[in-house]
Inverse folding.
């Protein structure tokens, strides 16, 4: 009897990279636990590792910089606190007002429709990431504080040959053989390069962390700011996000990366006296993916988070999607391997991970792409956007979609009114 492609192969210890299980030897070797390497210990990697290890897979989580912090605004939606059981102690600030400034400095406050229990959570990545990694460790993952340098792919991936992960720990070169690899190593993903996953367009973001005197910090107690206009970015927005005792001030661009410093001056000028008394203590820059990579699964390797390209275009939001994709992918491996007792295949990852992910988020990402194109195109479009944001219905729909990561259910009469207001704003700003 030939093995059908849908038949799961019980996990067998690696004998050689050419090892090919057959019905006669399936029964003679006692099943052993499936091994997975997760490369990258940001939200995507930590959540993937937690799902894998708590589901019975032997898991190695690699992070090259456990003491560091990813350059990031650190804003996360409310639903992430519940879904990922993140304690309030991890949250620096509970933002209930998002003030948006148009190119002509018209400002409106987003947040009128929030319930008393609703807010945007502002976190520091060094705190959030350490917390998520510690939880992965306590569920059984082995955290390796080292840099993955390269990966040897199996000669015959279908036969169950191992992936060899080469890494450096404190100057020593080491390696480990695993059956599954999850690439959670961010926008510069080595894993993506290794499997020939292709490239994506990206925005380059720049951010300064500025310590403000206490009385100036008081202004940002529960307030975050967003600035739009050609002076702060031709295709993104500038932000001032409050943290425990400082603000993160930054901007990004896809089209005009060499002008990033000029845009940073633009956002500083716009924020003006509110941050002038501050002291810059950290300057950071990093790419933000614009769309998913052409390939996200190859063989028994899957990409998640920024490595896969899961950041919404309009807002540059990626923390929640990183954590969620890591968890879905980890759970997919657990399900396909029946708790780490069976070898898995590329089809399993495509079915259990990619199909679930795309089913849940593809349309949301497409919708936000569309919004970006309509509203960020020119200063006139941005003026119309800010004007439209004053509408309470628009605020409610936007906040609900952001906070709970579900396309909010509308009301047909209010939707029609919103459409008319949109057209009105576009006409007023000479766009149509
Ligand atoms: C300036 C800026 C501001 C942002 N603001 C926000 C925001 O406010 N809210 C939001 O939701 N999103 C924001 N984003 C996007 C968000 O930061 C990312 O989407 C998110 O960090 C993706 O998480 P990740 O786990 O996929 O990757 P990352 O957070 O990039 O984590 C990858 C990890 O892999 C490690 N690593 C990489 N290579 C190796 C290797 N070879 N060996 C071992 N370890 C390795 C890295 O050290 C890193 O810890 C912002 C991005 C930028 C650049």
């Amino acid at each position: 009897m030939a093995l059908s492609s849908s038949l799961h192969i019980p996990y067998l210890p690696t004998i050689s990279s050419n090892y090919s299980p057959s019905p006669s030897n399936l029964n003679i070797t006692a099943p052993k636990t499936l091994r997975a390497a997760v490369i990258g210990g940001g939200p995507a990697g930590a959540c993937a590792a937690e799902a894998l290890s708590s589901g019975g897979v032997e898991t190695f989580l690699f992070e090259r910089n456990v003491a560091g912090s990813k350059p990031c605004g650190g804003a996360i939606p409310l639903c992430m606190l519940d879904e990922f059981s993140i304690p309030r102690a991890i949250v620096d600030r509970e933002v209930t007002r998002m003030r948006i400034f148009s190119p002509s400095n018209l400002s409106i406050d987003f947040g009128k429709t929030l319930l008393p229990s609703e807010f945007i959570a502002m976190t520091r990545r060094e705190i959030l990431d350490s917390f998520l990694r510690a939880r992965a460790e306590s569920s059984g993952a082995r955290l390796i504080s080292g840099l993955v340098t390269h990966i040897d792919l199996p000669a015959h991936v279908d036969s169950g040959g191992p992936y060899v992960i080469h890494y450096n720990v404190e100057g020593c070169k080491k390696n480990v053989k695993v059956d599954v690899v999850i690439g959670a190593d961010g926008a510069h993903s080595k894993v993506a390069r290794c499997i020939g996953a292709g490239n994506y367009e990206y925005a380059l973001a720049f951010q300064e962390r500025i310590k403000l005197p206490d009385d100036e910090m008081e202004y940002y107690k529960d307030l975050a700011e967003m600035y739009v206009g050609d002076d702060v970015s031709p295709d993104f927005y500038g932000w001032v996000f409050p943290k425990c005792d400082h603000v993160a001030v930054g901007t990004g661009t896809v089209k005009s990366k060499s002008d990033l410093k000029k845009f940073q001056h633009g956002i500083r000028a716009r924020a003006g006296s509110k941050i002038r008394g501050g002291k810059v203590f950290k300057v950071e820059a990093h790419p933000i993916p614009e769309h998913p990579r052409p390939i996200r699964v190859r063989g028994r390797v899957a990409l998640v988070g920024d490595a896969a390209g899961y950041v919404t275009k309009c807002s540059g939001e990626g923390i929640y999607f990183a954590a969620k994709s890591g968890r879905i992918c980890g759970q997919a491996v657990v399900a396909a391997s029946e708790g780490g007792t069976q070898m898995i295949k590329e089809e399993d990852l495509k079915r259990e991970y990619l199909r679930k992910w795309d089913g849940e988020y593809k349309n949301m990402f497409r919708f936000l792409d569309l919004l970006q194109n309509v509203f960020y195109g020119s200063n006139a479009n941005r003026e119309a956007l800010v004007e439209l944001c004053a509408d309470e219905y628009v605020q409610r729909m936007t906040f609900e979609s952001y906070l709970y990561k579900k396309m909010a259910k509308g009301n047909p009469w209010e939707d029609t009114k919103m459409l008319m207001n949109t057209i009105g704003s576009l006409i007023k700003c000479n766009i149509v």
Notes: The chain has 14 helices and 21 strands. The pocket of flavin-adenine dinucleotide is lined by residues 39-45, 62-65, 70-76, 147-148, 184-186, 190, 205, 207, 250, 286, 288, 305-307, 311, 316-320, 322 (CB under 6 Å).
